[in-house]
Write a structure and sequence with these properties.
The structure is a single chain. This protein is about 10% helix and about 45% strand. The protein is mainly β. The strands form five sheets. Strands 1, 13, 14, 17, 18, 19, 20, 21 and 22 form a nine-stranded antiparallel beta sheet that branches. A seven-stranded antiparallel beta sheet has the order 2-3-4-11-6-9-12. The chain has a four-stranded antiparallel beta sheet with strand order 5-10-7-8. Strand 7 and strand 8 form a beta hairpin. The radius of gyration is 19 Å and the shape is globular. It starts with a helix and ends in a 6-residue tail after the last helix.
Length: about 280
Amino acid sequence: MLATKLQHQERNIIHRTKGHSGGPITRLMSPSDLGELVKPFVFLDLAVFDGDHRRSMETMWHPHSGIATITVMLEGGVQIAETTGKRGVLPKGSIEFMQAGNGVWHTGQAEPGHVKAFQLWIALPPELENGPIASHYVLPDDVPATGPARVILGEYDGVKSPIPTPPMTYLVVNLEDGERWTYQPPEGHDVGWLAVSDGRVRSSSTIPAGELAIFEPSQAPIHVVAEGATRFVIGSAPQHPHDLVLGNYSVHTTQRALDQGEAEIRRIGRELQANGTLQR
């Protein structure tokens, strides 16, 4: 009887938010607020474009250091470019992973039509935060899947992402109306959260589209039931044991590491201005 009760024990939600919307982008968490609860996950945007609010790539260049950014295309496509030299179009179902390390600039622009995407930031550990930059573009057919889950980062149910990262798991999950699904975090993953893009899920409370929910620190499973056709992202990891030292577009573990990253950002920025890339 005790085992049965433990198996179905609810993992409680401790915080829910609709975030703050500005045009087509809803900021669900930032390093200065909810990122402190679920670090190394420190930032999440849900972007939905339907014809308007598109700015040119030339005006959207911005820098990062100390983090990796992960863009998951749910609908439509986006053009991207980086100072790594990479550029192209991410179609529906694809992933962009950019490890900013010691400093990088990038830009993007939504393609015409309906576009929906999540962009996540993860705080890098000290051995990577001022390290080399790295980019991985994973096309839809190369994103591994198991059951209703597509594995964006980490490993789940014996299926591993092609993107190397510190210990963490990040999934996109699609469920039909009434379908039940349980996420069992890997050992040591005491941080857990999910954000819904379509439909709604019921856990210890109901989470509709456009909301992010943070679960109590635990390694217990997360149980969800779909209410309607539902799509969401879910993340888990061991809690990042370092401070979050913040710049405008950067997150580091110490002021010294931040200063080093921002110096590199300024150096790249001067190059971009000199060659006419930055149009501000």
